[in-house]
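Researcher: Structure for this, please.
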Amino acid sequence: QNKRNQIDQYFKRVAINLSLLAKNPTTVRAVSEFETAFEAGGDQASGPQWSAVESQYGPVFTNLLKEDGYYDVFLIAADGDVVFSATKESDLGENLVSGALKNSGLAHAFVGTREKEISFADFSPYAPSGNKPAGFLAKPVLDADGRFIGAVAVQLPINQINEVMQERT
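Model: Predicted structure, token format:
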């Protein structure tokens, strides 16, 4: 029961942090600006416009890896394009609706944001991270008019869950 409570608390803390992040005006602007720069670069996370947006917003999201212990933080455009990834693995620039990752945990979490306030994809092997088990939480990002413009997602490493489960004291 103690382990269950610890894991519940962990997921609640991540969900609260993700909710605050999704509503933050910086996140809303970043999703929009990354998407514009991504499209300007020929649907690639490269080029001078994307690099300028990344230098402005990238440190904000990359800092979350250190502060909250996430493996990765993603900004995903409404059409499913991964327009930002803090770790810049091979998932950056992929489309989660029609691309090679459409059956991945990240894609399932993203698709769920259209139906739920917060979406979770359970731990399973994730190819861009060397097939290591990863879970994902995603939250819709809405513009000032309440329209869905994309999602923010975090990749959870399994080691934090394992630490709780393997505790013997």
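Researcher: Any notable elements?
Model: The longest strand covers residues 132-142. The mean pLDDT is 91.
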